[in-house]
Amino acid sequence: MVTRLEGDFDYIVVGAGTAGCIVANRLSADPKNRVLILEAGGGDNWIWFHIPVGYLFAIGNPRSDWMFRTEPEAGLNGRSLAYPRGKVIGGSSAINAMISMRGQSADYDHWRQLGLTGWGWDDVKKAFLTLEDHFMGESKHHATGGGWRIEAPRLAWKVLDAVADAASQMGIPRTHDFNTGDNEGIGYFHVNQKRGRRWSAARGFLKPVLSRPNLKLETNVLADRVIVENGKAVGIRYTKGGEAFEARTQGEVILCSGSIGSVQIMQRSGIGPADWLQPLGITPTVDRQGVGRNLQDHLQQRAIYKVSGVKTLNETYYSLWKRGMMGVDYALRRRGPLTMAPSQLGIFTRSDPHRERANIQFHVQPLSLDKFGDPLHRFPAITISACNLRPTSRGTVRITDAKPDQAPRIAPNYLATDEDRTVAADAIRVTRKMMKQHALAPYRPEEYLPGPTVGDDDASLAKAAGDIGTTIFHPVGTAKMGSASDPLAVVDERLRVFGVSGLRVIDASVMPTITSGNTNTPTAMIAEKGSAMVIEDGRR
Fold this sequence. Notes:
This protein has helices at about 20-30, 55-60, 105-115, 120-130, 160-170, 200-205, 260-270, 275, 315, 320-335, 420-435, 460-470, 520-540, and strands at about 1-15, 35-40, 70, 80-85, 130-135, 150, 185-190, 195, 195-200, 215-220, 220-230, 230-240, 245-255, 270, 285, 300-305, 345-350, 360-365, 380-390, 395-400, 410, 445-450, 470, 505. By secondary structure, it is α/β, with parallel strands linked by helices. The protein has a domain at about 1-120 and about 215-295 and about 395-410 and about 475-525: FAD/NAD(P)-binding domain (3-Layer(bba) Sandwich). Strands 1, 2, 10, 11, 12, 13 and 24 form a 7-stranded mixed sheet that branches. Strands 7, 16, 17, 18, 19, 22 and 23 form a 7-stranded antiparallel sheet that branches. Strands 3-4 form a two-stranded antiparallel ribbon.
């Protein structure tokens, strides 16, 4: 038996992550629009959603994480990785690194060159500015008054300053702002925080408007499939507490469930590669081969160096007194290590001199551990993670069952191309060169990972990258924008799904190519632009 939710909605938004919170906010601003937003997770009433360092407890916790895993990856020498995705209002913005990063202007100009009108740098910059409430104030590059709060980090580390000096000695320029369109340089990341607390999309865009009578939020629901009748999306089927429900719309269904979730819903709805769906007993209604293909992600190679004569978080972690003082500092001043994003210092540079623009990003941390969820090491150390900003490897996401409670098969296909293996090897070389600079000599950095026994030849370094590589949590592209003639395109430049009217996808899955940096802020931009498109099209 299926219970129908009372009334018809103008818009049904599936997913209350970064994109969904913004879309619901914008569409419900007009009191004539009745908006329903569905979220698989619950409310963000847990302390670790708000204290920045809480990502250590939220990632890998079924309360807040979908707990996905990848398939064993050949490029990672057979390893399978945890693949965190937020499961709470705010989505991944409630558990992520909080790093505010637009990417490079050339990323978006490339989208425009692909024929995606309205997605060049000058176009998307307007959306970035509309979203922002930036600590640097009004300027050519930033704005205030938006719902997306951005602040400077609230602590510094001597060892990270030394790494910055070492990078400068290599000729990498300093920058005070990575978000001007060219992020090449060395600087501390700006973060989505407000006075030492995490600023998620739920906090900035959803919770302030939940009192609107025309906006309804349903949490702890599992979206099953889009209801399609006569080629038009007319509603959504979902379960809650073991019961089946459906909600109907007079307008549009908008999928905002991300590069993993939106793909699963479409595939269960019969929208996707027919040869994937038929063996699962799903009748294909729209054979669109790109649904679940074109997966891109940033693979980081987590190099670790032991240091001496300088403080890192590793020693603090094992001192009850110091941990207690950290708590006091946070309680009284909202400062100290509890305000830390997972990475503090950023370095954008080129893996070799022939690159036209920065193609690798370093996340530098004053700590080390084997993997998220493990305790910190008992020796003082820093982590220097390098990622290829524009990987050429492409992976897939595909459902394994018609039932919505079954995890998908996620195969990122890391390091599958010669190009990606070359960049990975060169990135380790750049890391080693940086650690040998004079600025770090007083702290005697000693390579712990990948290890001094790993040779400097391409084959050894590519294998080492597979051994120490892990996701940096940036899956995009599985429902890419493109022209109708592109066999892998899923949505058009206005984010409408090909072959089904009344259905859009507005989230990171629509990126045709990944942006050159952390992907949460670009996802917010897509939501801002996508919402405006829905409103504009509704007036026609």
